[in-house]
Amino acid sequence: MLLDKIKKENDIKKIDKADYGKLAEEIRQFLIEKISVNGGHLGSNLGAVELTMALHLSLNFPNDKIVWDVGHQAYTHKLLTGRREGFDTLRKYGGMSGFPKRKESDCDCFDTGHSSTSISAGLGLIKARDLTGEKRTIVSVIGDGALTGGMAYEALNNAAQLRTNFIIVLNDNNMSISENVGGVSKYLNNIRTATGYLDLKEGVYNALQSIPKGDSIVESIRRAKSSVKQLMIPGMFFEDMGITYLGPVDGHNVEAMLRVFREAKRCKNAVLVHVITQKGRGFLPAERHPARFHGAEPFDIETGLPSNPRTKPNYTDIFSTVMTKLGARDEKVVAITAAMPDGTGLKRFRNLYPDRFFDVGIAEQHAVTFAAGLAAGGMKPIVAVYSSFLQRAYDQILHDVCIQNLPVVFAIDRAGLVGSDGETHQGIFDLSYLSSIPGMHIMAPKNKWELSDMLKFAVNFGGPIAMRYPRGSAYDGLKEYRKPIELGKSEIIYEEEDIALVAVGSMVKTAEAVRRSLKDVGYSCSLVNARFVKPIDEAMIAELAKEHRLIVTLEENVASGGFGEKVRDCLDGMHTDCSLLTVSIPDEYVEHGNVSILYEEVGIDEESVTKRVMTAYASVLAEHRMRG
């Protein structure tokens, strides 16, 4: 196998040119086999194989640098830098990350995970290079989906001022996670269809290379090429900004890309190389269903079907069902997503009510302010977004929604620990950053029925309100406990004495298991579903403090700024003897791994919490005996 020859960075340069196609096939087969077992980002990586090969053939690692936008397409890069064995532990706890990690390899120059950041980071590396007098090539690779993010244009505007080499590679596969939308997509589609320019360029280059002094003739016509591009390609958006545009080039033709990259390295300014690739290339199911294979669970290679298909609906499914019902009942209900109609469960709503569905692209800031405008215009907007992505729009939530007290609903999916994607995707900060904003209201459902009730409550609430729910199967326990939702009111599920467990959202299920364990060894224990994180039910906390010696708060959020802190502040104002134990995620970034393992690692699983409660209660009893 050719892959056996690649032990470390730059080993690809030992591969004969005639074998580039075979190497690409081996890489694809390797990725399919490994991801079918461990799961991971398949489609984006299959589409970027030859592009990555061409970059590695053009650059010298680790001196030269690549910044991968989002980073989920960097698997081939990891293979070509000697991390082949790491794929056996890909995205597993303690194993290799599915994203670039500086601590993992000197060939990873910048950690990524969120979209539209690579050009900004690349600019920083460029300035650092020039200020220190170092000699290296810096490349930022950005997808056409990520190019819908406003941050990319802020960086492009800045890059246009450069008088030093900076290569931006636009990996254009006409497909982010979901179909691209808007003017940028339309512009790139026009370029893709300008085959006359691409064919002319390839034909001229190939002909000139075959005659004596052809290289000098190529250099002579390079000066005139800008006018040719103006004729053959509509818009010339990048050139008009002051960024040299090269392409489009076939992203599965290594030799063609090598020629363009050689030309790009000669530029004394920012240059954008437009590379056209096919997402999922080489694996038919991924080619046909690129969204399904964006972040794939383990699957059967022969059929492409999941190895362990879901048997129960998840919270996103429940949200999807309720949204379609709300859309039918109220024509003012509108839905907004930032390029994730499938992931957030809005696909059915889009199909049924296309005029009231808005996909704004990878642009969370715009999504929130757009929703504020809709609300100011009398509509009832629901912004469906992942927890880790909503944090990108903090200022818009504060400035455009909450200051005006506009009725925008935030449906926050993937709240809490999400697992294998790691630090950049864990949704463990939303309770903290949202509750810091005056005027915001925050709920979390204990089960699938409460999610339905809370969403219906939120749509008619009349102010800024967020509902956060976790990834994974929707809890269907405690069905008999379904009191109407009241603003700032919690729900008593079991009322006893001594210990009171007050749990937020997903942690109610854990608290119920903890209570059973405590009951088994003789403890008397109440269980309260907090429902609201803001405003908290101060009257309930006061009542619990009178009847219990220990209150335990449970939340799937970092400690700082979380629910536990709010309960502590509440108790401090009451001057009570009741003690408080806060169970939360430590104030640290949580790496990738199976969610159940991560629960144990951060100490919010049933066993860990039970031990902590028993230890805390023993200390409370000892203190009472000393006082007595």
Characterize the structure shown.
About 2% of the residues have low confidence. This protein is 41% helix and 15% strand.
Brief rundown of the structure:
This protein is α/β, with parallel strands linked by helices and 628 residues long.
Largest sheet at a glance? 7 strands, mixed
Task: Report the C-alpha radius of gyration, rounded.
Answer: 27 Å
- Measured as a percent range, the helix fraction is 40-55%
Task: Give the termini distance in whole angstroms.
Answer: 77 Å
Mass-distribution shape: elongated
Figure out the total of helices: 25
Strand order of the biggest β-sheet: 7-6-8-9-11-10-15
Question: What would the average pLDDT be, to the nearest integer?
Answer: 91
Low-confidence stretches: 191-198, 226-232
- Global structural class: alpha/beta
Main attributes of the structure:
7-stranded mixed sheet; 5-stranded parallel sheet; alpha/beta; 17 strands; elongated; 628 residues
Topology:
Elements: H1 20-38, H2 43-47, H3 49-58, E1 65-68, H4 75-80, H5 118-132, E2 138-143, H6 150-159, E3 166-172, H7 183-192, H8 195-209, H9 214-222, H10 225-232, H11 237-241, E4 244-250, H12 254-266, E5 270-276, H13 284-288, H14 315-329, E6 333-337, H15 347-352, E7 357-359, H16 364-376, E8 380-386, H17 387-390, H18 394-402, E9 409-413, H19 430-435, E10 441-443, H20 448-459, E11 465-468, E12 491-494, E13 498-503, H21 507-520, E14 525-529, E15 532-534, H22 538-547, E16 548-558, H23 563-572, E17 579-585, H24 595-602, H25 606-627
Parallel strand pairs: 1-2, 2-3, 3-5, 4-5, 6-7, 6-8, 8-9, 9-11, 10-11, 13-14, 13-16, 16-17
Antiparallel strand pairs: 10-15, 12-14
